[in-house]
Design goal:
mainly alpha, 3 domains, two-stranded antiparallel sheet, two-stranded antiparallel ribbon, 24 helices
Length: 470
């Protein structure tokens, strides 16, 4: 049975997008697929910045903070409890500023998500931000997550996958998060220099974190056929990819290639031999990984799982994979294939919203946005602390991770608190119709209409299966 345009508009806004704002379903109803296709334009990101200047400044500020903190500790070593260091308060203020900077980045991102008229474009960008995860759980990346998303990911979400892979790998946020910045080949000038330093002052050595995550998480996937030897060889290729230090003035905080740390010699990754071509050796590996058929299969399966179902249909994955392979990983064409694939329009809402999606769609339903970072602080309690996925895998997509009984109780508590503030001056019945359209079932509509108060009605709407799922 063919779906009505009204139902397709509801699917377009709630499954492909981040939830409908007032009037959005009517806007999309004329041509739901065309409404989505119209968002696959330009650089694809309203928060995009053209280069890594912001990240470089953030890295520089963090290094200054760490230096000041070390000096403070050295000066206070051996002092009595009544002694007061004049540097203590400035260092604490600097630490607080670092925390607040990351919070402001996240608030700006959430406001964009809550207000954008192109929420498919934003969801598409958020998918890639999660695919190439940089987490703020480390001090080294506490303030670079937002700039990483803006500089490495968002400008390329409708470009070539190869370009995004290389840009994300070379970004200071990724290099610091996965400890690549200090990776040194064992047979290099840098390694010889380090060997002459006292044991306590030695840093570096070969680090395989980034190489492993590119293979396992960013490209061919854990079942992609690579071996530990491939990881090590690729890690050798990546040696020298680093971040400029304070002494490098013009390049401080930016990507640099350190020839003295790059392991010399040709390397073999996934059966192909790569000559020693300096910085281009690792780039050549990544170009081949981006073009690998197993990368197309792995990433397209992730896209289908994120947008449509925890167990996506093989036909949907095949449609995406076909577009990927035919265009060399042109992500705009993959996005068009997604919205053109019939299985993506199945009427059953199979996806369970993550906490972030739930909160953002709640704001979108009322035509509002979070006014302060405190309004998003509950995300940590809901299991999704801002800019802090627990591992390079990013946030999980599957319902099993987010739909546990205690998590549902926490969502209900948030829905009640949210509704108590916003519902008294609004009409929950109208919000329900405008947010869900024909996806609003009669039982839920009746429950909202018969609630004893507007806050109760709004809470019932937000916690309904129709609103929790997309």
């Amino acid at each position: 049975m063919a779906l009505s345009k009204e139902m397709r508009a509801a699917i377009a806004a709630t499954r492909f997008g981040l939830g409908a704002r007032p009037g959005e379903l009517a806007e999309a109803a004329g041509d739901p697929q065309g409404w989505l296709a119209g968002q696959i334009v330009g650089r694809g990101a309203d928060l995009a910045l053209p280069n890594t200047d912001l990240s470089a400044r953030r890295v520089h500020d963090l290094r200054e903070f760490r230096q000041d903190r070390r000096q403070m500790r050295q000066q206070e070593a051996g002092m009595g409890e009544d002694d007061v260091s004049p540097e203590r308060d400035p260092v604490r203020r600097a630490g607080r500023m670092i925390r607040e900077t990351g919070a402001e980045d996240f608030l700006e991102r959430a406001r964009l998500a809550a207000t954008t008229p192109a929420s498919f474009r934003e969801r598409w960008a958020l998918f890639w931000c999660n695919h190439f995860t940089v987490s703020g759980i480390k001090l080294a990346t506490a303030t670079t997550v937002g700039p990483f998303e803006r500089e490495a990911i968002r400008p390329r979400v409708f470009g070539r996958f190869e370009d995004m892979l290389i840009a994300s790998t070379a970004h200071p946020g990724m290099l610091l998060y996965l400890d690549q910045a200090q990776s040194i080949g064992p047979n290099t000038q840098a390694a010889k220099f380090m060997s002459r330093r006292p044991q306590a002052q030695r840093l570096g050595g070969l680090n395989e974190n980034l190489a492993r995550e590119i293979l396992e998480l960013h490209t061919v996937g854990v079942n992609g056929g690579y071996t530990q030897a491939d990881v090590t060889e690729f890690a050798y290729c990546l040696t020298g990819w680093s971040v400029g230090g304070p002494r490098e003035r013009q390049r401080s905080g930016y990507f640099v290639f350190r020839e003295a740390a790059h392991e010399p010699g040709p390397r073999t990754v996934l059966g192909k031999r790569y000559p020693d071509d300096g910085v281009n050796q690792a780039a050549a590996v990544m170009k081949d990984l981006a073009a690998h058929p197993k990368t197309a299969r792995f990433v397209c399966t992730k896209i289908a799982r994120h947008f449509v179902s925890d167990t996506p249909s093989p036909a949907l994955v095949a449609d995406l994979e076909k577009a990927w392979l035919a265009t060399g990983g042109d992500l705009a064409q993959v996005a068009r294939a997604l919205i053109a694939s019939p299985p993506a329009w199945a009427p059953e809402p199979s996806k369970f919203k993550t906490p972030y999606e739930f909160v953002i769609s709640s704001y979108r339903a009322i035509g509002g946005q979070p006014a302060a970072i405190e309004h998003l602080g509950m995300l940590a309690g809901l299991g999704q602390r801002p800019f802090a996925p627990p591992s390079p895998k990013g946030w999980p997509d599957e319902a099993a991770h987010w739909a546990a009984p205690d998590a549902i109780v926490k969502r209900m508590n948030w829905a009640e608190a949210f509704s108590a503030v916003i519902a008294p001056t609004r009409d929950p019945d109208a919000i329900a119709r405008l947010a869900l359209g024909p996806r609003l079932t009669e039982p839920v509509a009746k429950a909202v209409a018969r609630a004893e108060s507007r806050p109760e009605a709004m809470s019932l709407l937000l916690m309904s299966p129709e609103f929790q799922r997309r």
